[in-house]
Every structure is written in C-alpha cells, then in structure tokens.
Amino acid sequence: MPVTIKHYEAKFKKELSPKVGLIALSTDQTIENDFNNICKNLPIDIFVNRIHNQNPLTKENLLKMQDDLELVASRILPDEKISTIAYGCTSGTIAIGETKVRDKILLAKPGCYVTTPVTSAVKAFKIMNINKIALFTPYPDAVNKTILEYFSQKNIEVLSFASLNLNLDSEIASVDPNYILEMSSKLEMKNVDALFISCTALPVLNILNKLEDKLKKLVLSSNQTLIWDTIRSTGYKSPIKGYGKLLEN
Fold first, then answer.
1. Of 185, 224, 230, which Cα lies nearest the Cα of 202?
2. Is residue 142 over pLDDT 70?
3. Domains of the chain: which residue ranges?
4. What is residue 81's three-state secondary structure?
5. Which has the closest alpha carbon to 172: 23, 28, 24, 52?
6. Cys-Cys link to 201, which of 82, 123, 136, 172 (CB 3.0-4.6 A)?
7. Per-residue pLDDT band at 226 (split at 50, 70, 90)
8. Distance CA 110, CA 47 (A)
C-alpha cells in the first residue's frame, strides 16, 4: 500500500519544543548571549526581537519603550502561539510599570506567560526566602532611585548599595567582570540574605558561582532570574549548574 504525504507527516512530524520570545533592547550587548549560553542545550526554542532604546539611561528614555512593546512582541513569530515572552529590561520595567508591560505584550500575544527581570527577581526572592539584600547596579543616580523605591514597595530591604553610575549600555557591557568581583567585596554582606546585581546589560552571569563562593551568600542577577523564570514557566524543572544556586532549584 503506497504511503501518502499525510501518513508521512503524521509519522515524522517533529515534536515541538516550547517557543519563548525575548524582547531585548536595541542597545543591549549581553542578554542575548546569556540566554543562548544557558538555553542552547535545553528543549526550548528562543526567538529574539529587539526594541528601540535611546541612550543615555534616563527614566524619560526608558518610558519611550512602552509605545513599541505591542508591535515588537507581535513580530516574534507573527500569528503563532508563544509559550512565554521575557522583556529584557530591569529599569525599563520599573519605569513603565510591570502591569503595563504585561498588558502591552498580551495585546500582541494573548495567553502567553510574561516575565521581566524585576518580576522574576521578586519571585526568586520569595522562593529563596530572601528579604534583605545588598544591591549592585551600573545605573546613574536618578535610575538608582527608582530601583531602590521599587524594592522598598515590595518590602525588600536594601541594606548595602553600590553603583557604577554609567549612562550607556555600551559602557555597561564593557565592565570587566573581575572588577565586579572586586567591588562586591566592599559591600556590607553580614546581615543580608543575598546580593542582587541589577541590569540585563551587565556581564555577570558567568561569575555568579565565583561570587557566591567568595561572599558565602546567594547571588542573583537580572539575567539569571529572568532566564530562570522563563525556563521554569515552560515546564522545564531540571537543575542547571554553573550560574548560581537559583538555577539549581
């Protein structure tokens, strides 16, 4: 009996992995590599689209992204269902508002799970029983103020704080990770539950294990928590080693 095309398709059709969309900033040189480094061998397909971001790093410039969120999300596999969309900007989420970010994305991709760096960070804090943190950022003062206010509203105490006071994503992406290791030793860590390193453009993912060993504390970062929440939202539960204790849970 001859095999029809329909029979062939039914027998050999690929088992599809969950589709995940990443909205990365046009100026971010770090987040895409971080996602690829962790997800490349996982049964998850990552599809990236970039949203226009205007430097320097100010609340006013961050707010401009909200008008483009729906369009950028709609252009990730147009007309196809997406399991999860991750919006890759910590300070941008706080400037625009988590609810507004989620609502804009859901207009384009109804029914998907939406996460952001701050959404995922607060979720990770709860799971890891973190209430008091040391905070390290690369941001200028005005943006740092919004980050500190956000954590205060979420009842997260910031007991120690340091910043690089940079204004451009290109500068942030160029920071030597070894310098961050050095800077972290100057933070007061005695009474905190964890160190949180904010900003998706900061290249810290590959030193999280070193930081945890050095500080004897949990260390979380924007990209790490965002990737963790994205992966877990698709149903993948296996531990991932090499990027801090959070991803091992």
1. 224
2. yes
3. 17-116+226-238, 119-221
4. coil
5. 28
6. 172
7. very high
8. 17
pLDDT above 60: residue 7: no
Residue that is written with structure tokens 């980050």 in the block: 147
Instruction: Provide the CATH topology of domain 17-116+226-238.
Output: Rossmann fold (3.40.50)
Instruction: Output b/e per residue, 88-118; b: 16+ Cβ within 10 A.
Output: bbbbbbbbbebeebbebbbebbeebbbbbbb
- Distances from the Cα of 52 to the Cα of 2, 31, 55, 66, 107, angstroms: 53, 15, 10, 10, 19
The conformation of residue 126, written as its DSSP 8-state character, comes to H
SS3 string, 146-194, reads HHHHHHHHCCCEEEEEEECCCCCHHHHHCCCHHHHHHHHCCCCCCCCCE
CA–CA distance, 112 with 72 (Å, rounded to integer): 15
| Greatest Cα pair distance in the chain | 76
Directed axis angle between helix 208-215 and helix 177-184, to 10°? Answer: 20
Phi/psi class of residue 135: alpha, beta or left (left: φ > 0; alpha: ψ in -120 to 50)?
A: beta
Q: Is the CATH number of domain 119-221 3.40.50.12500?
A: yes
Q: Give 86-111 pLDDT, tens digit per residue.
A: 999 999 999 999 999 999 999 999 99
pLDDT at site 4: 55
Q: Are 20 and 83 within 8 A, CB to CB?
A: yes
Same CATH topology for 17-116+226-238 and 119-221? yes
Residue with tokens 């269902």: 81
Q: Which helix (H) or strand (E) holds 28?
A: none
- Is the pTM value of this prediction over 0.90? yes
